[in-house]
UniProtKB/TrEMBL annotation:
<dbReference type="InterPro" id="IPR000023">
    <property type="entry name" value="Phosphofructokinase_dom"/>
</dbReference>
<dbReference type="GO" id="GO:0003872">
    <property type="term" value="F:6-phosphofructokinase activity"/>
</dbReference>
<dbReference type="Pfam" id="PF00365">
    <property type="entry name" value="PFK"/>
</dbReference>
<keyword id="KW-0479">Metal-binding</keyword>
<keyword id="KW-0460">Magnesium</keyword>
<dbReference type="InterPro" id="IPR035966">
    <property type="entry name" value="PKF_sf"/>
</dbReference>
<dbReference type="GO" id="GO:0006002">
    <property type="term" value="P:fructose 6-phosphate metabolic process"/>
</dbReference>
<keyword id="KW-0418">Kinase</keyword>
<protein>
    <recommendedName>
        <fullName>Phosphofructokinase domain-containing protein</fullName>
    </recommendedName>
</protein>
<dbReference type="InterPro" id="IPR050929">
    <property type="entry name" value="PFKA"/>
</dbReference>
<dbReference type="GO" id="GO:0046872">
    <property type="term" value="F:metal ion binding"/>
</dbReference>
<dbReference type="InterPro" id="IPR022953">
    <property type="entry name" value="ATP_PFK"/>
</dbReference>
<feature type="domain" description="Phosphofructokinase">
    <location>
        <begin position="160"/>
        <end position="484"/>
    </location>
</feature>
<keyword id="KW-0808">Transferase</keyword>
Amino acid sequence: MLTRQQSCVERPVALQHGSNTGRKLSYIAVRAGKRALVVRASVTVPTIPTPGADEVLSCPDIRPRLVARPSPFVAHNNFGGGFVSDMDRVALTAMRFGSPKSAGAAQFFAAPELEGGNGDGQHINWMEASLEQLTTPLPPWAVRAGARETIFHDPRHTTAAIVTCGGLCPGLNDVVAGLVNKLTDYGVPEGNILGIRYGFKGFYDKEHKPQVLTKRSVDGIQLQGGTILGTSRGGANIKEIVKRVDMWGVDMLFVVGGNGGNAGANAIQQVRCSSSSSSSSSSTASGRVQMCEENDVLCNVIGVPKSIDNDILLIDKCFGFDTAVEEAQRALLAAKVEASSARCGIGLVKLMGRQSGFIAVQASMASGVVDAVLIPEVHFQLTGEQGLFKYLQSVLEAKGHCVVCVAEGAGQDLLENDSLHNGTDASGNPILADIGTFLKKELKGAFKEADIKYIDPSYIIRSIPTTSNDRIYCKILAHNAVHAAFAGYTGITVGLVNTHYVYLPIPVIIQAARKVDPRGKMWNRLRASIGQPNFY
């Protein structure tokens, strides 16, 4: 028999495929030394049935109108990393709850039944199931992102365009550089990669012509914040954009933007599903598509989702979010220093978060110095026995100072009479009243002796270069976007879902904003960490 001191090597020798419940794998354990003792063992490895077509969030493509050819990376097996299959799948929901009483499970079992969905909510992500705006129920699986062995464009004759849209966010330059470098790796010639200036308007703005992007011109741009292409909100004249795409012979268009930018990309794409069934087409976004049908322009439109608020549906996190949280934490730490250095000091920090409080929640959790966090998803009141001020009074009595973090979209119901609380901006977003200055004024009225320090770092946290994790993330997103275009996909965006990179049809992610779940683990973990009650 083998002793503890004797080393052995496990070597699989036989593989028997079983039913959907499992497969049998046999091993041989061989003792190292002069004498060999063979021990045979078998284990049953669970397997997962291959998902059917109606169980996959399929992505539109224009492959029938393109010519298939081997990838230039076949020669070296994609730098040794191999290729992704079109049949690879990523689960959209990572966990199946055994009971409604399981932590974080309430929102799944309470999910309303949606047309074409699964009814019990088990395969419907909580943030989609709980939103009235949802129009596309989700199947359990998504298409895996990555390089394919077969591509549908000849790189030598390919022209690509890149545009950045919406507000600034850490990582825009990283994504632009990643796109240019991977396009060049495929063999797209210098001079065939165009950078569109100042958002969608750059397609038809006579004052700002597209700039040619090369590996040399993007070298090192990831070390600076902002975007070398410039950006702007709104102004998407779709017909003019399609006209320029046709005129310039653009084969691939990469749109780096948030919900508005991706909506613009989707409009440019003009998806037309072949199926007339609303339930089947909405659940899978399937069917062949025609790009710019009126002009019959053939172009792959690929999105790279950007949101400093981290409010894109389905995606684990948006690029730049980690960087924003890190910088936001600095503001909270500064507020702590200011508040603790004054008699009856109150540090008030307003962070970005129009509809979603992810930055406020994560930065507060990371800093460990915040006493109260206010986000758009959770109603609060200022006065009364359960109000914010009553709680802050107890904190001041206990330790002499406190720190409050508020997301910019929080408490808008308290400012309904504000004269600025109306209208929309260039992107179509509601113009928010300033909750930060409002709270500062109300705090001053409630705590006469308090020394209040108000910090608003909004534009600081979005204009800085990325941290190392975000830098890597941006590069992978950009590379997978290029892989998607060469694979013939169109009208899709790329993102990280359950730690795996996937392709998602744009209509799915632009239905509504992702929000912090007041019943979820993230919010309640924060409340437990800082001891925050409900303020209502």
